[in-house]
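Annotators were shown the component list below and the corresponding predicted structure, then asked to write short factual statements about the assembly.
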Amino acid sequence: MHRRTLLTGAMSLGVAAPALGQTQPIEIQFWHGLAQPLGGMLEKRATDFNATQTKYRVVPTFRGSYPETMVAAIAAFRANNAPHIVQMFEVGTGTMMGAGRAVKPVHELLSETGVQIDFNDYLPGVRGYYSLSDGRMMSMPFNSSTTIVWYNKDAFRRAGVDPDKFPETWQGVAEILPKLKAGGGTAVPMSTAWLTWAQIENFSAIHDIPLATLANGFGGLGTELRINNPLVQRHMQALVDWQKDGSFRYGGRNNAGEPAFPNGEAAIMFTSSGFRARVQREARFDWGVAMLPYYQGTPNAPINSIIGGASLWVMNKGPAAGGGRSRDEFQGVAEFFKYLSNPEVDAQWHMDTGYVPVRRASYAIAREKGFYRDNPGADVPIEQLLRGGGTLTDNSRGIRLGGFVEIRTIMEEEFERAFQGQQNAQQALANATTRGNQVLRNFERANRG
Amino acid sequence: MRKKVIFRGVALPYLLLVPQLAVTIVFFFWPAGMAVWQSTLRQDAFGLRTEFVAFENFLDLFGDALYLNAAWNTVIFSSSVAALALGAALFLAVQADKQIRGAGLYKTLLIWPYAVAPALAAVLWLFIFHPSIGLVGRAFGAIGIDWDYRVNGGQAMTMVVIAAAWKQVSYNFIFFLAGLQSIPTSVLEAAAIDGARPFRRFWTVIFPLLSPTAFFLLVVNLVYAFFDTFGVIHALTRGGPGNATETLIYKVYVDGVQNLNFGSSAAQSVILMVIVIALTAVQFRFIERRVHY
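Structure shown to annotators:
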């Protein structure tokens, strides 16, 4: 009897505690895919948001690389345990767009919660990538970047190449490669990370040629790859030939090749503008950035490049009807997005990391603060995204292919064969087209209706 | 003759079997059944739309050049790993079985690699073979060998074979050493008195007596190379360059986890399940027959 009294007492205490502590914040799970140092900077945004109010608490968790984060979120959804917010790289956009009731579109989230975010102020390339064709936003733009050129000015000086002027054209690059090889003093003149993003996807965008039909997939699921065209063939064959003569070195998939730049092995590197924080910390030489070169003589070129990086998707909890989320949880997510969209916050994020400001207002703030005067070249990615007047074409709006992660791997695999000398660029592109189209057809079939 | 305990009735024996049966059903039959069921379906990544396609996933696989490529890679990879791991282990076991100073120390050190996790082993090999940070990789570069496993399929395959075999040498070593120690010295002495030199003694006396051990190890090594080498390949090459080091088990991961193509991935698992059942059957059949020589 005595024991029961104790038990009841303990239980009533347990019930009373939350009732008393109404300040218990609502937890918002936020999974992200940024390794250090960027991951810490991202988590700081969540901490800062938590400090501005007491009702919600955003809990950021690192879930591995972007593809790993994507897979983890999907598996969690299937197990009825999805995070509220998942950071999804741009390549996963097509998959998320087809995700049906797994995701809560941002435009729905905002209209239901009454939170206002001025998306008209967002850079067109950023807004276009993450919205439906009628302009309604599907996800929250966050860390956007684009591929630019990173080059080692010391190596350029040693080779007798003007360190303040990176060639604007690929013809110009072809001229300096032999000089860098002979006198640059690096292990290899040129390398690239994100082979397909830098050398095929953005390459196609700035030359205003299609990567796939139906406006690169924005027009529907029936899209087909168009990468096997003369210009891409020409460019990729040049890379294959340079790999053979030692002017270029393929550094592995995704961003595996990146370390070759800050450690001084490669004089020229193509990779994300989000690489800045790392180069600043690690490079022990004078470096510069430049816009992507283009082939002189291509009509319309160069125009804007397309973004990479990631956006934030709101997820329902699981496949069960209703989605399993309360109004309060969505309200918290919307408030957090509102906080991130604040131009001051966005400008600081841009200045800390090297990701581009996603809003015009934030770009202006960074300029006013003298950021581009103190950090020459930090505005190069933004200018490149606005190149050609900033009016997007069907070829430069972005890419929306289902199963794009797999298609990228396919292109990498085929070019790894080409770099080994097993096939030429044209064959690699033909094979990648055949295999990639199969992925697109499978996706179309699985997501029909 | 063995002693047998006879239980009366049926309830008790079944009751005693229940925990074991429950574990087997929950952790083997149920997931295996799910895999078979999933292999007949096509689903979108989020599991919201499902279509029954019967054997289409299997037919697609057999018509897929890359799947056949993965099967061929698996044959090359598994036979090389088994040959290398068995050969090295046998050599080391024969040496360690001799009367040498510090034999105990050697034996202990040779067993250590077995305790290293596959991913860690792969990272160790990376520090050896990476063209820009690896000791041997850099040395190759310095003497003019064009070493870069990221763009050379043959080199990549060689590297994963060495890394995977290294892990297995310890296990084989223990069995070979035990096998060697169980060979009666009288047989060896008799052979020596008959004038057989060490080389001949090894091939005509020791090796035949070791063959049951060797056969057992061959099967174990093949199963290891088939199913247990995911970590090594994932950490070192991710199946690349091209698809040069993509084995069947790695392709299951790529299609299921990366490409979110669950139907095809499940179909591949079912095929692997059939292979492992066949290997086990072969092992039992031959071991049972040969063990009484």
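Statements collected:
1. Chain A is about 45% helix and 15% strand.
2. The two ends of chain A are 62 Å apart (CA to CA).
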